[in-house]
Structures are given as C-alpha cells and as structure tokens.
Design a protein that fits this description.
rod-shaped; two-stranded antiparallel ribbon; mainly alpha; disordered N terminus
Length: about 425
C-alpha cells in the first residue's frame, strides 16, 4: 500500500521543491498540509480498491433494507420484477423457517452458546439442520444481491428507502463510508507528501517547544524584574520612612527645610514610581502578546491533534472490525470446506464401490458378448451350410429334371423312328 511503500532518497531538485512547498504551506493555513496533494486516483489498483469498497457499501445498504423490502413487497413489485420478487419471497420463507427452528430449539433448551465462542451445542441432527438453514439463507442473500446488481433501477429504488433502516445499520454504513473516505484520502497521498507532513508536524512541535521555553524565560525575567522593582520600592519606602522620622526630628529646627525635603522626596518617589510603572506596563504588554501567540499555537495544534486522533481511532476500529469479520468468514469457509470434504469422501467411496461393481458387470458383459458372438458365428455358419445345401439340392433337382426330360425325348424319338420303319 502507499503507506508502507518506502520512498527513495530525495534528489536536490526534490529537496528544493520540498523546501518551497514548506514555505508556501507555512504562509497559508497550517492545517492545509493535511489535505491530499491530488484530487483523483491515478493507478488501477487504487481505483479497484475504492470500487470494491463502493460495491461493498451498496451491498450492505441493500442487505440492511431486505426486511423492509420483504414487508412492502407488493408496493415495490412493479419496480423489482418477477425474478427478484420470487427470490425475495423465497428469502422470506427461508428466514421464517430459520426463526421457527431457532425458537423451537431454544424453547426445548437444546440450543445454547458455549464459552462465548458462538459454538452450537446440541444433537448432530439439529446442528446439521441449523447449518443447512444458515447456508440456504446465505445463498439466498447472495442470489438477491446478484439480481440487484443486474438491475440498477431496482437497486436504486430499494436504496431510496433509507428511512426504514435501523440505527445500528445506519451507524455501520456511516462508519464504513468514513473508512472509505479515509482510505481514499490515504490513497491520494504520496509517500513524499506523507514524509513532508510528518516533518512539518515535527517542526511545529519544535517551534511550540521553543516558544514555551521563551515564554518561561520571559516569565522568569519578568518575575526577577518585578522582584527587583519591589526591592527598590521597599528600599525607597524604607528611605522615605527614614526621611520622615528624620524630618520629625528636624521639625523643631526648620519647618521650611522639612517641607522642602519632603517635597523633594515625594517628587523622587513619584518619578521612580512612574519609571517603574512604565517598565512594568511594557513587560506586561510583551507577556500578553506572547501568551496570545501561545494560545493560538496551542489551539491549532490541539485541533490538528484531535483530528488525527479521531482518524487514528476510526481506522483502528475499522481494522479490528475487519479482522473479526475475516475470522468469522474464515470459520464459515472452514466449516463449509469440512462439510464438502466429508461429502466428497463419501461420494468417492461410493464411486470406488460402483467401479468394482462395474468391473464385475463389464466382465460378465464381455462373457455374454463373447457367447453371443460365438452363437452368431455358429448360426451364420449353419445358415451358410444350409444355403450351400439348398443350392446343391436345387442343382441336383435341375440336373435330374433335365436328365428325365432328355430321357423322355430320347424315348419319344426312338418310338417315332420305329413307327416310320414299320410304315415303310
């Protein structure tokens, strides 16, 4: 996948392009770097992945609305067609039979789950009946999905009934669609862009760390400056108190001198206070600016971190769900394989037995055929001999008839010759 693909070391031109891209991204919104660099998929593999996910979402939407479609089958009969109507009615009958069988087995206390694994415990005949019903329902669902795939209008008409879908199915479809969007975004992101995003996040983190250190240093400097100003003010206050006490002592000697000294001290105090207040205001303004910048950076980083955490959590949940579904499908395939293998073994034994019977029958048939052949040859030989004898008898009879005719003719000739001689 593009995530696991290792990118080659960047060339000087690509490095320059990367620096230019970073500068442009820094000038714009910091979160825009998380957007993919392309808007369309370019490879056949990624397009196939998204196509498979879209087809899967469509099938899930159809399956989640099967019960509603069966319930209002008459209202949708003009759109679905005869073939889909027949398949849905057959599915309804299979589902009712399945529910009846489960209710019967649970009522008799012969069906339960063991160790939380979902293994069925009961007689072999009951388990076999239940498995046969399950296979029939699965085959019916596959057939219905195939018919919906061949009829896009009927598929869209059923999917338009989304208001009838239950909350759990809606949440599952929504999560699967979000997973499709996340995967689509991942497929649009190249390894180089992924690396640049990681580098940008590291730079943001480093800048945040540096800003935090700078703010801490400035706050320490401000605290030291405030402490210094407080110390100076304390010193000034101590000096003022000393001066006031001195003035109280000198009040007896010079009222004017005390007043003048007091005014000078107050002026000096006000000047120092103004200078100190100006410095404090400037430092406080710098602190407000830095805190505002820190708040902006923290807000941006928290938003980006929250978005990334949400995506990571969704991906982990989707992966976990797919792993569980894969394990369940593999378990069903293994069960189906074992059943088919058992049937194959039984049929193979029957085939071997039939072959043995066939060999015996073939041998008997060969013997009968050989006897028939010998009988036919004997019959043909007898017929040939009979034909020869008939021909011989015919020739003998013809020869004998010819001999008799010739003998009669000779006797007649002799009689005529004697008659002629007697007349003379």
């Amino acid at each position: 996948s593009p995530r696991n693909q290792r990118s080659p070391p960047p060339s000087p031109s690509s490095a320059g392009h990367s620096q230019t891209l970073k500068k442009s991204l820094i000038k714009t919104s910091p979160l825009k770097i998380l957007d993919p660099g392309r808007s369309k998929l370019t490879t056949v593999e990624t397009k196939r992945i998204i196509s498979v996910l879209d087809e899967t979402i469509t099938k899930i939407e159809l399956i989640s609305l099967l019960s509603h479609t069966v319930e209002f089958l008459d209202d949708l009969s003009t759109i679905l067609g005869s073939e889909l109507m027949g398949a849905l009615k057959e599915h309804e009958q299979l589902s009712n039979n399945m529910k009846t069988l489960l209710t019967q087995l649970k009522g008799e206390g012969l069906l339960k789950q063991e160790d939380g694994r979902g293994d069925l415990v009961g007689t072999e005949e009951q388990i076999h009946r239940l498995q046969l019903h399950q296979q029939a329902v699965k085959s019916s669902i596959r057939n219905i999905l195939r018919l919906f795939q061949a009829d896009p209008l009927a598929s869209q008409a059923v999917r338009d009934e989304a208001y009838a879908r239950d909350l759990s199915s809606e949440m599952f479809i929504k999560g699967f669609s979000e997973f499709r969007g996340f995967l689509f975004e991942k497929l649009l992101t190249s390894p180089l862009e992924e690396k640049e995003k990681i580098q940008f996040m590291e730079e943001i983190s480093l800048r945040d760390k540096k800003n935090t250190e700078t703010i801490a240093a400035l706050e320490a400097e401000l605290a030291a400056e405030i402490q210094s100003q407080d110390n100076e003010i304390m010193k000034k206050n101590a000096a003022i108190r000393d001066l006031k006490s001195h003035l109280l002592h000198l009040e007896k000697f010079s009222e004017s001198h005390i007043q003048r000294t007091k005014q000078e001290a107050e002026k000096l105090q006000k000047g120092e206070l103004r200078v100190s207040q100006a410095k404090c205001d400037k430092i406080q303004q710098d602190i407000h600016q830095l805190r505002a910048q820190l708040s902006v950076l923290i807000t941006e980083n928290r938003e980006s971190e929250l978005a990334l955490r949400k995506k990571k959590y969704k991906v982990e949940m989707e992966i976990e769900n797919w792993i569980q579904k894969y394990d369940a499908d593999m378990g069903e395939k293994q069960t189906e394989y074992e059943e088919v293998h058992a049937v194959y073994t039984e049929e193979k034994a029957q085939l071997a037995e039939l072959k043995e019977k066939y060999a015996v029958l073939k041998q008997e048939y060969s013997q009968i055929k050989e006897e028939r052949r010998l009988s036919q040859e004997k019959k043909e030989r007898a017929e040939r001999e009979l034909a020869i004898m008939v021909r011989a008898a015919t020739h003998i009879q013809a020869f004998w008839k010819g001999y008799l005719v010739r003998s009669l003719l000779k006797s007649k000739r002799k009689k005529k010759g004697k008659a002629k001689k007697s007349k003379k």
